[in-house]
Amino acid sequence: MSGYRREYTRDEDQQIVDYILQNDAVYKLRGTAMWKQMEQSKQFDRTWQSLKNRFLKKIYDNMHLMDIEHADSEKIRKGFQATKNDPKMKDCKYTKQQHDVEFSD
Q: Per the domain annotation, does 1 fall within a domain?
């Protein structure tokens, strides 16, 4: 079927959050690099764009309904809301053209 979109399951939503937390990626949510890595992990049968959109449009505002510790949801919120001038972002390289945040190893 052309144009068919599979609905996300609650399990997939939980896996997205788990991936973010397990990979300490809370400060990488606004860019594209982490989402591309998530797609390449083969843990998800989704494109990176789909994963990011799902997080931004459905998961982020509904974390309180998921099986997530309050401290973890706050960690994700603070990471997502961080700006390039945030002290916790000092080890990141912000590329304005790409709207991406890259962490140095």
A: no
